Structure formats: structure tokens, C-alpha cells
Amino acid sequence: MWDWYIGLSDRETKNLRRGFTTGTAAAAAVKAALVYLFTKQVPGSVKINLLNGQTLEVLVDLVSAHNSLVRAVVVKDAGDDPDITHRARIGAVVGLTDEAGTVQITGGKGVGMVTKPGLEIPPGEPAINPGPRKMIRESALQVLNQYHSNAGVSAEIFVENGEVLAEKTLNRRLGIEGGLSILGTTGVVNPLSHEAYTATIRSAMSVAGACGCDHVVLTTGRRSERFSQAFFCDLYQLHPEAFIQIGDFFGISMESLAEHKIPNATLAVFFGKALKMAQGFVHTHAAKSELTMEWLSDVVKKETGNKILARQVLNANRARHAFGMIWPEYPDVLEKVGHAMIRSAEKFCPARCRFRAVIYDFQGTIAFDSYRRKKGRD
Fold it and tell me: Are 224 and 268 in contact (CB under 8 A)?
């Protein structure tokens, strides 16, 4: 839907290697274990029917048997996508049951448990999303049919070292405790497609709404979030679920606000991201910097009448450089940027939402706050 400015050429993107999701890895582990149960032979690889209609051959790393149960492990390959689960060892402990044609899926060690409402899986269930559950069931039934079995299947999904890996994700914020979530909407990972990040944003919005948050604070990274938590938690006693990192995904986050009917949102960002939002970029990656400085230079010229300063801003090499020329001497320039941010947010949000804009200086002090400016004029 959006024209993403990710800073890569089409040629560079096409040369990146695709990978597969944690859900695909789990389904492959289940299938490998079942194949061994029926054949007593370790498969080197298994073919998985993906959720996008394609098939993928997945290498099997390990299969071992203990009594009537078989344990299989697949090493997740995220391709060239930066992903904390790349090379994670995802597996399943599989057995046969007397319940013909059924597939029971449980979460084992390293798979998180859902503890908050608002996600696709209800609280109290292992964090294995509907897409992966479907792939696991279909893979298991495929093997049962192949070997003409009337049995059922029990599959316990696990992630080796999953508890440690989960500490490097936003899972706890979303209400997933004790491990990773098993995810995937198509079964494949497209390099730099940002699918996982946008899914996390939507999940975070859903959790915030389900937890009763009528005000969310949207930041673009850990640093701006840390400053926002220090300010807003003390002042407004906001829940942890109210703080959502949207990265560069401005447009899609505004859509998600509307989707989950959240009536109030604060955009709390540094000056560089504020400029991109003010100009209406749906994606605020570092690209298009020349256009950014042209726009800011025009604002400086109109607000200050200082043509020399406007020219200096135009030639600034980074937003941080330009910020030092403007702040604190020209607060009206920041005010224009802040209110332009709000207009852009309103344009991308297809529902009524009250926006507040906060711009931090690079030490974390609030340089502009649309709420304070408005209150000061009342």
C-alpha cells in the first residue's frame, strides 16, 4: 500500500536472500518427527506447504527418539533479514494418540505464554499464532494420510534458548512471558519487508486497546521511548502497554490507531523523525534528506525572515546540525514542525484521534510540546 523509502535500490533488494518464519520451522520439525515415527529413517529435509500457497523444502538438523516420542529440530533461517531468531533452534516433541485425525499443539520450553488480552491467541495459551498452528496441523495430517494412519498427533513446540532470545524482543511488552512467539503470516521472510515489525506494531496497538489504554505514546526507538516513559509515566500514570515503538512506520501506525479505536496519541520523537513526519512521509527512513532540508529552510525563512539562516539550514548535513541552528533561539520554527506533524498524523489516521506532538532535543529534554504551547495560550 505504501511507497516505502528504505534506502535500498531495487537491484539490492532483489539480491537479498529470503528465509522462513518460526512457524515454518515448527511445522517442519513436526513433519520430520512424524516421518521418523512411521519410517524409522531420519529425513534430511521435508517439504512444507506455506500459507501463501507455495512449498518450501526445509533442512532437518536433528531427529532423536525416546520410547514412543520423537524429538526433531530445525535451524531457523531468516535469510538476509535482520532477525533475532535467525539460527534459532526450533523443534517439536511428537507422539501419536488414539484421537483419530486430531492434532494437539502445546508449547514447551522456550515458547512464550500469552498473559494479556488483545493478541491473536487468548491469555493462558502458548504464543503460537493461528498461521503456524494451521501449518503444523496440515503438515501432520499430510503425513498421517501418506501412511494411511488413523492415529492423532500430539506436538509440543519448543525453542532452544528461547527464554534468553525473548529478552531481546518486545514480547514482554505485548504480554508474552517466558519465551519467543511462533509467528508467520505467509511462512516466508522477505528481506527488509518489515512484515514482522509492522505486525508487532499492530499487536502492540491491539494489546493497548484491550488493556483499556485510551492514550498511547508513539516513539521511534528505544531512546525516545526511555525519555517518554520518564516523563509520561510520572505525570499521567500510563500503563507500560501505552508505550509503542513504531520505528519508521508512521503511516501504518496511524492506520492501526484507527483500527483499534484509540482516541488519543502522543508522537514523541527526535527532530530528524519529526521533520519526516511533518512533511507527510509515510515511512521516516533516513532517505530524502535533501527534500527535508529544503522544506525546513522554507519554514525558517517564513518564520524568522532570516535568509542567511535559511541558507545555512538548507546546507546542513543532518537534521541534528540544523536543530542546533534553530533551537533554542527560534521556538516558532519547532512549533511549525510540531503542528505539521499533527496534520500529517491526522491525514494518515482514518478515524478521529486527538494528537499531541513532542520533540526532544538530543539530550532528552522536551524542546517542543504542542500541549504545553496550547495550554500556555489559553
Answer: yes
The DSSP bridge pattern shows strands 354-360 and 62-66 to be unpaired
Which residues are paired to 92 by β-bridges? 72, 157
Residues 6 or more apart in contact with residue 175 via CB below 8 angstroms: 114, 115, 116, 117, 118, 119, 123, 207, 241
Answer for the pair 21, 83: CB distance below 8 angstroms, yes or no: no
d(CA 94, CA 29): 9
Q: How far is CA 328 from CA 48, 188, 276, 366, 368, in A?
A: 59, 48, 20, 11, 10
Global pTM?
0.74
Q: Is 207 helix (H, G, I), strand (E, B) or coil?
A: helix
Q: How far is CA 37 from CA 31, 71, 154, in A?
A: 10, 10, 12
Q: What is the per-residue pLDDT across 18-39, written as a single tens digit (0 to 9) for each?
A: 789 899 999 999 999 999 999 9
Which pairs count as long-range contacts for 60-67, CB under 8 Å and 24+ apart, including other chains? 60/28, 60/29, 60/32, 61/89, 62/91, 63/32, 63/33, 63/36, 65/36
Report which residue type is found at 239.
H
Residue 153 bridge partners (DSSP): 96, 103
Give the count of beta carbons closer than 10 Å to the beta carbon of residue 308: 8
Q: What is the pLDDT of residue 84?
A: 84
Q: Quote the DSSP letter at residue 87.
A: T
pLDDT of res. 119: 87
C-beta separation of 278 from 337 below 8 A:
yes
Taking the C-alpha atoms of residue 141 and residue 74, their distance in angstroms, rounded to an integer, is 19
38's torsion region: left (phi>0), alpha (psi -120 to 50) or beta? alpha
Average pLDDT over residues 207-218: 94
